[in-house]
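hi! just following up on the protien thing from before. the input was this:
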Amino acid sequence: MKKKGLAALVFAWMLLMVMAQTGQAAPGSTSIYLDGKALALPENGQVQNVNGNVMIPIRVVAEELGFDVNYEKKTSTVTIKQSGTTLILNVNKTTASVNGSKVNLPIAPKLAEDTTLVPMRFVGEQMGLEVSWDNTAKSAYLTSSSSGSGSGNAGNAGSGSGTGNGTDTGTGTGADGQQPGTVVPPVNGAELAKVTGIGFSNNSLMIAVDKNVTPSIFTMSGPERLVIDLPQAQFADTLANGAPLDVNKSGAIEVMDYPDVSKVRYALFSSNPSTVRIVLDLNHKVNYQLVNENDGLIFVNLNMDPSQGGNSGGDGKKTVVLDAGHGGSDPGAISVTKKKEKDFNLAVVLKVQKLLQNDPNINLVLTRESDTYPTLPDRVKIAENVGADIFISVHANSGSATASGVETYYTRAASLDLAKVMHKHLVQASGLADRKVRTQSLHVTRETTMPAVLLECGYLSNKNDDALLATDEYRNKVAQGVADGIKEYLGLQ
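and the predicted 3d structure came back as:
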């Protein structure tokens, strides 16, 4: 199905409500924004959170929009047709049909009085829309592919010099405190952005933040350093990806196997305005590129100064991105014994990490190492920015009580060979039924540019699969299968 047709159908499905009257949302109620435009909601059409799944209300589609919409009350079936594409959704059923192909939903659509609610995850993963949920504002944001996003900010923003006295991430004065660049004054009443994660991989620094910030980046000499200041920001209570944070709100990451950087240091540099400073201790001068698209992730990509000779990060390693599906506020599927898919996904990925972390030919990057939720675009961006050779997303499935087995999904033809290899090892390791390699338009396998697959390691809706998925023995077997598949595909066996 073409992405435009899918996005249009999602718009229709979001707007559909049988015989509802249009009205503005009441003050303090939830809101839905499509490409930045607030949608008018009926009074009883509120966004709901059902077992961790954000459910979006639907109302009637105006005929002038060109959609052919039919609601069959007897069967509780909604059929939407547009430009040769047919979407069929059923109330209280976790499967939908797109042009005759079966699509699984994380939770069934339901009726709330005369309004139909559909899971927002379905909108994002199946229909090509980027989605996000602001829990504070109780607002859902949907962005179609046509709206796009701006390019990152690239280049060297300022330069400077100073003497390295070990205080360049601390508060106070001194040569390192006289940084060039723009200092943003405090905004009265403004909530500070929180830095939620700091990591260094593939010769790139990654900073995760929970709201937009405008970084200032510059160099210092004697010794060589690269400094990134985040004004109007503070640290979260803990940092993701295992980055340490002490009681003084500072920490450091030792950098190994990269020729440009020896250490990453960070601290709360100033309290007025509140500013987080991150310093890269360099082995020599570097060229760098700051990429900030105001989507929650900031990258600083490094390239060795050509005058130094040699290469930058060109160590011949293959970069593998491991993605533990769901996480944080998104539990994924819920098993028959009330276990959460996100926990299984993370446990397996961490086991794969242990199996491969000492392989001299592999550079591992995890989209999450704890119970956090990177958005689907975040996961893609991580893979793209580290120049991943392959992308592996780990999941557990949900369907009927009798469905059992493992599946491997891919979207682009370039991913088929990877899918075949990974699926072979998944079937062997799991011992479950072979439900074959399948193609489906999933965000992380569609929007990535390297070979990418999504592994479904069993059915949480099946009592036998569920019991296996909960055991450490099964998780170890699946992790070994994933590791073996990665090595075979990369020619490292």
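Residues 55 and 119 are 4 Å apart (CA to CA).
The helical segments are 3-15, 120-127, 341-356, 376-385, 416-430, 443-446, 463-469, 472-489.
cheers
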